């Protein structure tokens, strides 16, 4: 790479000499082991990150917007997400798309293309969302699904009139313990199998929700809902804003896009492969979102539940609902890890750079695990990741209404990470002239998404204020 250089956008950067193996059959051009990711592994990771249990709220979101606006908003966000993701994927390498310097993380891409204060803003938004918007929300959603399984079996055994109240805290702790174990998987590229399992599970519960919706339509013989959705009272206007936020959050995966792209092999260029993976995954998720949202709305109309599976009752057919909720739990195990790996990597990389001679931080202890082979145990990784999972688990038990707060964080995340930074980085990298037609179109897109984000934030704040009125920490039961 040559001598140390000062880049006006990046500041001082220490160049690390490439090992002699760089660019050989076993190593990539940056000296790392050959990446092996393909369109399909990237698609599986994207689907794992995108299709979460939030898909089950799309029937409720469609009910707030109606038959016209509901599907239109889903299609709009799918297009925006696909387009801005292609812009972001073009920023994986700085300069030449084949031989340019790699940006290993989203923050690295912002540093290379924009620099300055924007790097800190990007890092703050990204890592706060990984902490609050992903880790805690996934923990809460998983515990709710485990509680739903327990309750459905209780109703089946004692009848639908039985109280069957279940405390969610033991299930929240169980999910946390499992994540402590999974969090010791060292690197992002070693999660490919977990991503595939999680993607299969997401299709499983989405398909069950879709199938039950179709069955209910056939049973009643009517397609419910209206063209404009619910009546426009003040409270319901806020709910419409929340619905738009639910849909926007359902498409958001930009905060891990660069990290996923960094697992891809080349040639062809990583950007080309990522564009194909983005098209496959966004098209697939949009199809599922449209089917689940529209069929759920057709089945329940304006009374569509926030979680589609709960609308079918807990006891008939209880076993199918149990399978769907179990699939949600398994999916969230994988989605949690795929989503928080960038945060893990950031903290560990920063610690190694600051304390390069610390044995606690840098030393790996090698030992063999029967069946699984050798494993490198790092004490800092063990302590830090375990502490992270414990903290997020405790917060999940303290704030049982956190899903509405996550809607607020999702809205705050959508515009900067999915739209603003990809647009600004692409303009900088491609040197698009200011006030040119292309520049104006990109800025109009960014401004329109900002306006939508502001409306969604307002609706989410109203929901959080409503939740705080009945808030009781550590006393969540269903």
Automatic annotation (TrEMBL):
Spans annotated as Disordered: 1-27
What membrane topology was assigned to this protein in its record?
Multi-pass membrane protein
Which chain regions cross the lipid bilayer?
A: 42-61, 67-92, 121-141, 191-215, 277-298, 318-336, 382-402, 439-465
Please state where this protein is localized.
Cell membrane; Endomembrane system
The GO terms describing molecular function are: symporter activity
Which residue ranges does the record assign to the Amino acid transporter transmembrane domain?
A: 35-465
State where it is primarily located.
membrane
Per the record, its GO cellular-component terms are: endomembrane system; plasma membrane
What is a biological process (GO) this protein takes part in? amino acid transport
**Keywords on record:** Amino-acid transport, Auxin signaling pathway, Cell membrane, Membrane, Symport, Transmembrane, Transmembrane helix, Transport
What family is it from?
Belongs to the amino acid/polyamine transporter 2 family. Amino acid/auxin permease (AAAP) (TC 2.A.18.1) subfamily.
> According to its UniProt entry, what is the function of this protein?
Carrier protein involved in proton-driven auxin influx. Mediates the formation of auxin gradient from developing leaves (site of auxin biosynthesis) to tips by contributing to the loading of auxin in vascular tissues and facilitating acropetal (base to tip) auxin transport within inner tissues of the root apex, and basipetal (tip to base) auxin transport within outer tissues of the root apex. May be involved in lateral roots and nodules formation.
- What protein does this entry describe? Amino acid permease 3-like
Q: Which organism is it from?
A: Pyrus ussuriensis x Pyrus communis
């Amino acid at each position: 790479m040559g001598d140390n250089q000062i880049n006006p956008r990046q500041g001082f950067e220490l160049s690390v000499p490439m090992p002699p193996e760089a660019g050989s059959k076993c190593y990539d051009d940056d000296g790392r082991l050959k990446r092996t990711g393909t369109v399909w592994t990237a698609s599986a990771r994207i689907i794992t990150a995108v299709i979460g249990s939030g898909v089950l709220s799309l029937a409720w979101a469609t009910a707030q917007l109606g038959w016209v606006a509901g599907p239109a908003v889903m299609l709009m966000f799918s297009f925006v997400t696909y387009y801005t993701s292609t812009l972001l994927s073009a920023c994986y390498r700085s300069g030449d798309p084949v031989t340019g310097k790699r940006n290993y993380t989203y923050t690295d891409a912002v540093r290379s293309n924009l620099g300055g204060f924007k790097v800190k803003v990007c890092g703050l938004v990204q890592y706060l969302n990984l902490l609050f918007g992903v880790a805690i929300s996934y923990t809460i959603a998983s515990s709710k699904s485990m509680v739903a399984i327990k309750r459905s079996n209780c109703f089946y055994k004692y009848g639908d009139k039985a109280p069957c109240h279940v405390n969610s805290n033991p299930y929240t702790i169980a999910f946390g313990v499992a994540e402590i174990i999974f969090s010791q998987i060292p690197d992002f590229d070693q999660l490919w199998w977990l991503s595939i399992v999680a993607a299969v599970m997401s299709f499983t519960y989405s398909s069950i929700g879709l199938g039950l919706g179709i069955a209910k339509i056939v049973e009643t013989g009517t397609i419910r809902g209206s063209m404009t959705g619910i009546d426009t009272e003040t409270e319901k206007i806020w709910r419409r804003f929340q619905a738009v936020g639910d849909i926007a959050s359902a498409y958001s995966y930009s905060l891990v896009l660069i990290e996923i792209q960094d697992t891809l092999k080349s040639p062809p260029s990583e950007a080309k492969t990522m564009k194909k993976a983005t098209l496959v995954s966004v098209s697939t998720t949009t199809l599922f979102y449209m089917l689940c949202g529209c069929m759920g709305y057709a089945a329940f109309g304006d009374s569509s539940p926030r979680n589609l599976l709960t609308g079918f009752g807990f006891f008939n057919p209880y076993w199918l609902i149990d399978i769907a909720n179990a699939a949600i739990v398994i999916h969230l195990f994988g989605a949690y890890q795929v989503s928080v790996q960038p945060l893990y990597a950031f903290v560990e990389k920063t610690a190694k750079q600051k304390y390069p001679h610390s044995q606690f931080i840098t030393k790996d202890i090698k030992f063999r695990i029967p069946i699984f082979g050798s494993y490198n145990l790092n004490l800092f990784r063990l302590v830090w990741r375990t502490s992270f999972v414990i903290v997020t688990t405790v917060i999940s038990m303290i704030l049982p209404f956190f899903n509405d707060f996550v809607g607020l964080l999702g809205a705050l995340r959508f515009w900067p990470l999915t739209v603003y930074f990809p647009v600004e980085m692409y303009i900088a990298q491609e040197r698009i002239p200011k006030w040119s037609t292309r520049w104006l179109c990109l800025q109009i897109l960014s401004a329109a998404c900002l306006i939508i984000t502001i409306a969604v934030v307002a609706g989410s704040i109203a929901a959080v204020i409503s939740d705080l009125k009945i808030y009781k920490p550590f006393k969540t039961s269903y």
